[in-house]
Design goal:
elongated; 2-enoyl-CoA Hydratase, Chain A, domain 1; 38% helix; eight-stranded mixed β-sheet; alpha/beta; 12 strands
């Protein structure tokens, strides 16, 4: 359709809409024929837009209000939680990523790709809470897909999803809390080194690794761990509800593969992201991925020592689950 024919066609269509009362006024912007609804109680709205193709002098009519293909936003949550390295998951760096995933392009669902051995309970809670706030505010379903592992804090993130799916060999669980350190007091004594610490407050130097452990310090630490564990249990029960089995203790730090985790109600079944989303939203569903990006300086080796140490810590966290 050539330019003159297109303008004539647009003119007829627009005035037809005007006669039917669908629009209040017809405005032409050059040869693009933009029809605008300027009714008193209806906001400014583009009805039809004809655009010129860069490869041809011809123009085509585009109707931008046709139903778009369903889009699933995919957020990758991979790595230990709350550690020092640039790849670590934390609430601050994930906040803008989550906001974009939920708000940009009206996704029919947000899929979480989870591969985490855990980490900081506070960062796990902050990230999970942010996911739930956005899901409830925007009424977008959240579906989690576990890769190698969703253990400890990694499972906390998975439980923020409305559904959890995994691979047959995915490691699930470890709903517990751990604290680990080293004691160097004997080593210092053998070397003839005298540790001197001065505090205001009886518990200020609690669990100093260079001094012998005190029973009262151990009791305080265990109470802290129990309190955090209670928060973890409450989160899992709140999110999984009646799906959880009552025939086995799920909160003793044990881990399971996906099939057994399904039987226990910790996950919903075995499936992978793409086929699961296609089965639910159709073959034409497309995916928009979001994740943490490396800064320009980090690509050229900045913070090498810090990243190396963080990498060792993360590797040790995965090794606890045989990964």
């Amino acid at each position: 359709m050539h330019g003159g024919d297109l303008v004539d066609f647009q003119n007829r269509v627009a005035h037809s809409e005007l006669n039917l009362g669908c629009i209040g006024r017809v405005i032409f912007a050059g040869r693009c024929g933009i029809y605008l609804d300027q009714g008193r109680s209806v906001p400014l709205r583009v009805l039809f837009v004809a655009v010129r193709q860069s490869t041809s002098a011809d123009m085509r009519l585009r109707i931008p209000f046709r139903k778009p293909k369903p889009m699933v936003a995919v957020v990758r949550l991979s790595g230990a939680i709350g550690m020092a390295g640039r790849a670590s998951l934390n609430a601050d760096t994930l906040a803008p990523i989550l906001e974009k995933a939920f708000r940009k392009g009206k996704p029919v669902a947000v899929a979480l790709e989870i591969n985490s051995p855990g980490g900081s309970p506070v960062q796990s809670s902050l990230i999970g809470a942010h996911i739930r706030r956005l899901a409830e505010e925007l009424e977008v379903p959240v579906i989690g897909f576990v890769e190698d592992v969703a253990a400890s804090g990694g499972y906390w993130l998975a439980a923020a999803a409305d559904e959890i799916w995994a691979d047959d060999s995915s490691v699930i669980g470890s709903i517990g809390v751990i604290s680990a350190s080293f004691g160097l007091d004997v080593f210092l004594e053998r070397q003839g080194v005298d540790r001197r610490v001065y505090t205001a407050g009886d518990s200020k130097s609690m669990l100093d690794p260079f001094k012998p452990e005190k029973p009262e310090d151990i009791a305080r630490l265990k109470q802290l761990l129990e309190d955090i564990h209670s928060n973890f249990i409450a989160h899992v029960k709140n999110r999984r509800g009646d799906k959880l089995t009552t025939e086995q203790n799920l909160f003793n730090g044990e881990i399971w593969l996906a099939k057994r985790a399904t039987e226990l109600g910790l996950i919903d079944g075995i499936d992978h992201l793409k086929p699961a989303m296609q089965a639910r939203f159709g073959d034409k569903v497309h995916f928009r991925r979001y994740g943490q990006r490396r800064s320009l300086l980090s690509r050229f080796g900045a913070s090498v020592v810090q990243d190396a140490v963080a990498g060792i810590e993360e590797r040790a966290a995965y090794a606890r689950f045989g990964l």
